[in-house]
Write a structure and sequence with these properties.
CATH class: Mainly Beta
Number of helices: 6
Largest sheet: 9 strands, mixed
Strand order of the largest sheet: 1-4-3-2-11-6-7-8-10
Strand content: 15-25%
Order of helices and strands: HHHEEEEEEHEEEEHEH
Radius of gyration: 27 Å
Shape: globular
Number of strands: 11
Structural class: alpha/beta
């Protein structure tokens, strides 16, 4: 019995040595190929960075976020919405600004003026304004914040209005006149802007030169019809 116990311990020790040798060899091979962590960790599920890179790649180069020359008398931290050219400028000072591509109001829904950022929200809920529900009664009355929410990843609320500067889950609308007056950016860009903007920031919205404003043209039948046509069951319209 004593001899069998000795042989069993010897066999166990040999097995442990073999396993340890295999583990060492595997680690050495991994290091020789430049792997610093297990392969499954290197192929983790894509996060925001991967998704936003794809968003940026899909944009026309002129609409991608970039620092540009922009002489203005407005103070650093001011937001300027260039409606005709679908740009948003965040003033840096010293004749420079960060320029973002945006989507703006469609015909009859552009507006202009000076407002203030009164609230900021991450992954905001969407509650369509009553004016929008009157035009589009089929809209949901509430959509919880999240990846499927039409306001996207962030929202900046403009005091005294139903308008917001917000993200979008449809980057193809950037550079276009498509909304009911809100200003939209890609989720990547709105997250970047959100981190820079402070509550109380001034927002200057430039007019759409030569185009009717919302005050000048109210919900013509053809416009209401086009809104209805753009809504598909199971999805939310890109008209907010």
């Amino acid at each position: 019995m004593a001899m069998r116990a000795v042989m069993a311990r010897s066999s166990l020790a040999t097995s442990v040595m073999v396993v340890a040798t295999c583990l060492w060899y595997g680690a050495a091979q991994a290091q020789s190929f430049g792997f610093s962590q297990p392969l499954q960790d290197r192929s983790a599920a894509p996060g925001v960075a991967a998704e936003t890179s794809e968003e940026d790649a899909a944009l026309d180069p002129r609409l991608r976020r970039q620092v540009v020359a922009y002489p203005t008398d407005e103070a650093p931290g001011t937001i300027i919405i260039d409606t005709p050219h679908t740009y948003l400028y965040f003033v840096l000072g010293n004749g420079r600004a960060i320029r973002y591509g945006i989507g703006v109001g469609r015909e009859g829904f552009t507006w202009s003026g000076v407002k203030t950022v009164t609230r900021k929200a991450e992954w905001p809920d969407w509650i369509p304004p009553q004016e929008m529900i009157a035009r589009q009664p089929y809209l949901p009355r509430f959509v919880a914040g999240g990846p499927g929410n039409p306001l996207g990843a962030r929202a900046l609320y403009l005091g005294g209005t139903a308008y917001r500067i917000h993200g979008t889950n449809d980057p193809s609308t950037i550079g276009k006149h498509v909304s009911s007056g809100c200003i939209r950016l890609t989720n990547e860009d709105v997250i970047d802007l959100y981190e820079r903007v402070r509550i109380g920031a001034k927002v200057v919205v430039l007019p759409q030169v030569g185009a009717p404003t919302r005050a000048a043209s109210a919900a013509r039948p053809s416009a209401r019809g086009s809104e209805r046509m753009s809504f598909n069951a199971g999805s939310l319209p890109a008209l907010y």
